Amino acid sequence: MERFIDNWPSMDLMRSEKMTLVQLIIPVESAHRALSYLGELGLVQFRDLNADKSPFQRTFVNQVKRCAEMSRKLRFFKDQISKAGLLSSIRPVMQPDIELEELEIQLAEHENELIEMNANSEKLRQSYNELLEFKIVLQKAGGFLVSSGSHAVSERELNENVYSNNDYVETASLLEQEMRPGRSDQSGLRFISGIICKSKALRFERMLFRATRGNLLFNQAPADEEIMDPVSYEMVEKTAFVVFFSGEQAKAKILKICEAFGANCYPVPEDITKQRQITREVSSRLAELEATLDAGIRHRNKALTSVSIHLAKWTNMVRMEKAVYDTLNMLNFDVTKKCLVGEGWCPIFAKTQIQAALQRATIDSNSQVGVIFHLMDAVESPPTYFRTNKFTNAFQEIVDAYGVARYQEANPAVYTVITFPFLFAVMFGDWGHGICLLLGALVLIARESKLSAQKLGSFMEMLFGGRYILLLMSLFSIYCGLIYNEFFSVPYHIFGGSAYKCRDTTCSDAYSAGLVKYQDPYPFGVDPSWRGSRSELPFLNSLKMKMSILLGLAHMNLGIILSYFNARFFGSSLDIRYQFVPQLIFLNSLFGYLSLLIIIKWCTGSQADLYHVMIYMFLSPTEDLGENQLFWGQRPLQIILLLLAIIAVPWMLFPKPFILKRLHTERFQGRTYGMLGTSEMDLEVEPDSARQHHEDFNFSEVFVHQMIHSIEFVLGAVSNTASYLRLWALSLAHSELSTVFYEKVLLLAWGYDNLVIRLVGLTVFAFATAFILLMMESLSAFLHSLRLHWVEFQNKFYQGDGYKFKPFSFASLTEDED
């Protein structure tokens, strides 16, 4: 038997790749190039030999800082390009390779140029905004002043108009005339004009009213055009206002409130002629500034476009350089400071590729000394590495979400490829819904190359990553739907006619008296005549419940059998004799026997009550079965199986801890006495000393662990079998929901001779099918199938306490690592 098993062909996914610990001794002059070539290869996981040092104490910390600074500049360029509304170059640009030092100089020059252009543009934009606001205030406030001229003091110029900014160099000639001190009537009516954000206008007016106790007149008018904020580049709506007041105290309060609300105040003369003159001058200045701004924006966009052409290449280059220096910081200098020493894990199959890459690095860097590559003995467990493709990767991710496999442990993903979508389909069986899922999966697969190059949202990325899982789930759903004979809950005579017919031509008593069987059974799946009959629900309940138990037992037995292959692979005969064998006997003595009874009852058409048989197998095993007997010799078989199940519990519990204790005592008996000349210091230093191992073994701990494991399996055998009944429950719920939507929505609407009602019914049915049955029900079935694999299947053999192989690879670098 063992020779037959040894001759089986090896499976790539069944066990993780064999790994080895290697040591690299790299000359300093070729270290950077060697790490770059290994990053392109992506098959070495380096160990951090400087874990006790902080990042600032490491050798290449300055290079890492430089790369981080260049990454910051590149992110700044990217942000500026997106703000300017320019598209980054998608096409690869042919450009000679550039050194890191040269790139650093170029980035600094581009950044300084861009910062200077931004500062100039911001100043010009601020001046432009102030002149535009002044123009708006002149236009709006002029109307207020004319309308309130009868209330104002005539033949007097108001010189109390105030600036909030002092940057109007361009309009100084006219503004100085307005601000010259002249005679003013201190008790007369005065005004302050300005502009404020529209969102603050109401609160601003209310605050002015309260501060002056209502002794003011507030006029406002919305600006005709929006004004760009120079900082956020957003368009802001503003409102022009004029406040009429009297007295110096009111003036001081109003100015403080204007300052607090960020309102800009501008001087407006009462004389219409001067208003027009200032307006003309402001308009000419605005035209000049607008032309200057446009020229500046064109120059800035041209500079950004020249950067965007190379941005992707530069970003990738800096990212790779930073990754190389981060990895170099994990290596140690030897005592001569001429070589770097590194350790790491690599798959055995990749040794020749790694040696070839290191040899190429030595030649390309003109080093006189080659890189030394040799294997090391490892104490700790190696990382777990599975070579997957785009089809198997999603299933491997499902298993890894529970826990990464221990090194060389049997991989559940091999079986999950089939069992996961199949158990999903048992709960989701409807070939109409399956076709809908299939179409969605085919669309994702057809657009695979296009979608893989795009940046998708979280939900779409998850859906695209599981496109092959979706494909298999849809195919198995179509298969199970054909077995259940359900197409959107409607049965069809696909494989021939029904085996049943009515008792007479009228079919009047079909529901009350039932149908008559007149030919051989329906060839594939459930007979369509069961739909709508009075015994439909009891029949389908019985069928799906028993089928769930059979599938569950097969699934759990597969897990126990895999525990045998694990124990055999790791050479643990104790686990085979005292764990695998009693577990297999216990599970199949009880639930294997139940599955046998189900199959016999199906084949013979017996009316035996299986509930009664299983209950009285424990309560009174020697009692005569009577009409519940399914085959000859059933009662003595029950007694034997019950005794085997009882014996299997102590078989699991007691022998293994005591045998481990005996083996440990025999192995280390007398070995604590060292050879003559061996000091106590040597025993303490030696890591594999017998004394250390002797102290590591704790019998009580081992016994308690074995007891917990045994109790968990015994109780779990019952609870896990019952857990598979979710296959029956969800399948029934899906079928009944489909029936409700079909009969109570679609058929009900179709019964009306009204096109509008029919269209409404069809729309509601389509939305209910899409969102409830195809989305919510599929998600529910997915999660339940996931639970059956993680808990009921994998706990029979899967440890899941390994750690994933994470090689140093340029391909795995992301934007987050900048």
Protein described:
The chain is built from 26 helices and 13 strands. Helix 6 runs antiparallel to helix 7. Helices cover 59% and strands 7% of the residues. Strands 1, 2, 9, 10 and 11 form a five-stranded antiparallel beta sheet that branches. 28% of the residues are buried. It is α+β, with helices and mostly antiparallel strands and 818 residues long. Mean pLDDT is 84; it is low at 149-187 and 673-694.
Beta-strand share of residues: 5-15%
Low-confidence stretches: 149-187, 673-694
Provide a count of the helices.
26
Question: How many β-strands, per DSSP?
Answer: 13
What descriptors fit this protein?
four-stranded antiparallel beta sheet, alpha+beta, single chain, flat, five-stranded antiparallel beta sheet, 818 residues
Please describe the topology of this protein.
Layout: H1 2-6, E1 19-27, H2 28-41, E2 45-46, H3 61-83, H4 100-147, H5 172-179, E3 190-197, H6 201-211, E4 217-222, E5 227-228, E6 235-236, E7 238-245, H7 248-261, E8 264-265, H8 272-328, E9 332-333, E10 339-347, H9 351-364, E11 372-376, H10 393-402, H11 413-428, H12 431-446, H13 448-452, H14 458-465, H15 467-484, E12 500-501, H16 510-513, E13 516-517, H17 536-569, H18 573-604, H19 610-619, H20 634-653, H21 655-668, H22 680-685, H23 690-696, H24 699-723, H25 726-750, H26 755-793
Antiparallel strand pairs: 1-10, 1-11, 2-10, 3-7, 3-8, 4-7, 5-6, 9-10, 12-13
